[in-house]
UniProtKB/TrEMBL annotation:
It comes from Arundo donax. Residues 61-135 form the (S)-ureidoglycine aminohydrolase cupin domain. InterPro entries: RmlC-like_jellyroll, RmlC_Cupin_sf, UGlyAH_Cupin_dom. This is (S)-ureidoglycine aminohydrolase cupin domain-containing protein. It holds the Pfam family Cupin_3.
Length: 138
């Protein structure tokens, strides 16, 4: 029986073209792990805030995001302290978050972002566009 054709993510990333090759059965698992690691690498962390831009719906589903409570606010500016770790998914809006102790440095988050704020962080939210988000405190 012939081996299945398997896409090689490294070739896609380096050449922009998807190529296929015959591989032993363990190769797909290694390649899947490489793709998963690559997807996780799309998340960035700046000033203690972790942002995943436009995560796939499967990731949101795995986390149960659509069942989390919702919160929203209009354009505004206010201080906030996280008494617990918060993970949120922005459905709409645009915000600049200024963590205390970092001067004028900020992290911009917007609709489609999955964001994690650490417990204990104090910051200022500068809401440029009204926010609607799902959130979960841990």
């Amino acid at each position: 029986m012939a081996s299945p054709m398997v896409a090689t993510p490294v070739q896609l990333r380096t050449t922009g073209r998807l190529s296929f090759s015959s591989s032993p059965s363990s190769a797909p698992r290694r390649r899947f792990a490489a793709v998963r690691a690559s997807a996780e690498a799309m998340a960035t962390e700046k000033l203690g805030i972790r942002v995943e831009r436009t995560p796939p719906e499967s990731r949101l589903s795995d986390l149960g995001v659509r069942q989390w409570p919702k919160w929203g606010c209009e354009k505004s500016k206010f201080p906030w302290t996280y008494s617990a770790k918060e993970t949120c998914f922005l459905l709409q809006g645009k915000v600049k978050v200024y963590p205390d102790g970092h001067g004028e440095e900020f992290v911009e988050i917007a609709a489609g972002d999955l964001v994690v704020f650490p417990k204990g962080m104090s910051c200022t939210w500068d809401v440029a566009e009204a926010v609607d988000k799902h959130y979960k405190f841990e």
